[in-house]
Amino acid sequence: MTTTPPLPRQLPRGLTQDELKTRVGQAALRYVLPGDIVGVGTGSTVNKFIDALAGMKEQIKGAVSSSVASTERLQALGIAVFDANAVPSLSVCIDGADEIDGQGHMLKGGGAALTREKIVAALAERFVCIADESKLVRTLGQFPLPVEVIPMAARHIARRFAAMGGQASLRLRNGQALVTDNGQHILDVKGLSITDPLAFESQVNQWPGVVTVGVFAHQKASVCLLGTAQGVKTLVYPGPDRPEPATRRCSASNH
């Protein structure tokens, strides 16, 4: 196993990535209602949402967080954080993505919180993905696929990905294997083209030693707020519990 740097991303001209993140973070507030307990993901884009959410902290009950980092940021801003076991369901989860396709399937885990992010997503009636337009892809897999693994299984799992044509790298931090909030390690896998996200997620999650794979197909996005040079574009992804628009499977609007 080796380690590799992240892939560069193209952004709209004239706007910084930070500005796009701020736009979508603020736009996500329209999915938060008074009295809500909000599911909150992890990452730099989500941090912008947390900062914006602080302006509503007197109107909401609080949040369920997917990571220690998000919990610390929420609490520092005076937002109450609930344990996931104390909350039977959530009306909405707001989280980012490393990639999202035209059906709302996502590749996530760049912030190493993928397992807890899946748990929070599973509690929510609606998953709102916030991202810049460089994250919208035809097929998942250009961004290295994160997989949370039990340390003793890392090399075995890397070999299984190699048999599929992938190259697995152990994620490092300060020269040592990164340890997740769950006490596990992360493999980042390059060279995959994930054409059937549902089947792929189910397959890899069955491998012994995999905690979870960073494909979110069973907990896909309901909505994606996409930061663009023209504004925030809203992509709606119908699912079994959501009526399909009369026009097309993925509808878009600008705000």
From TrEMBL:
One of its GO terms (biological process) is D-ribose metabolic process. CDD domains: RPI_A. One of its GO terms (cellular component) is cytosol. It comes from Verminephrobacter eiseniae (strain EF01-2). Catalyzes the reversible conversion of ribose-5-phosphate to ribulose 5-phosphate. The keyword Cell division does not apply. Substrate binds at residues 42-45, 95-98, 108-111, 135. This is Ribose-5-phosphate isomerase A. One of its GO terms (molecular function) is ribose-5-phosphate isomerase activity. SUPFAM superfamilies: D-ribose-5-phosphate isomerase (RpiA), lid domain, NagB/RpiA/CoA transferase-like. The active site is at residue 117. Belongs to the ribose 5-phosphate isomerase family.
